């Protein structure tokens, strides 16, 4: 970056750059698009979109959950999560059931088909690990950085 771009040489305080290439937000946006794009063909084989895959990951890990808990774990609001769940139910992967003890609470459970899909999905993380061409340490460092960034931004 030149002195003009950073404001260097013009006093002690550098002016923030408005160049696209200098923006962390654009690097994150481009990386997110690249990752999602790489997932697409893998998830197409499973008849899932990327957000649906995230829902399935949570259900495979935790089992049946209330929608509220699922939304909290995925950091999604009810309005975003409900259409995802309806599509997963239409595919036969989940069931949505109102709780007898509280009519307002809806429990999400995997169907047999949804449980069986887990075995086919086991190939996805390995394929993505290969696609990123990074060492396990680099992946862990990147994940740690992103978690810290999310935490810092969420706290403000």
Task: Name the average pLDDT.
Answer: 91
- Overall body shape: globular
Gyration radius over CA? 21 Å
Q: Give the oligomeric state of the chains in this entry, treating copies of one chain as homo and distinct chains as hetero.
A: single chain
Helix content: 55-70%
CATH hierarchy: architecture of the domain at 19-127: Orthogonal Bundle
Distance between the termini: 30 Å
CATH class identity of the domain at 19-127 = Mainly Alpha
Remind me, CATH topology of the domain at 19-127?
A: Arc Repressor Mutant, subunit A
Would you write up a description of this structure?
Pfam families: Staph_reg_Sar_Rot (PF22381). Residues 21-151 form the HTH marR-type domain. The protein is mainly α and 156 residues long. It has a domain at 19-127: Arc Repressor Mutant, subunit A, CATH 1.10.10.10. The chain has eight helices and three strands; from the N terminus they run αααβααββααα. β2 and β3 form a beta hairpin. It starts with a helix and ends with a helix.
Question: Descriptors for this entry?
Answer:
3-stranded antiparallel β-sheet, 3 strands, disordered N terminus, 156 residues, globular, Arc Repressor Mutant, subunit A, mainly alpha, single chain
Quick synopsis:
Keywords: Cytoplasm, DNA-binding, Transcription, Transcription regulation. By secondary structure, the chain is mainly alpha-helical.
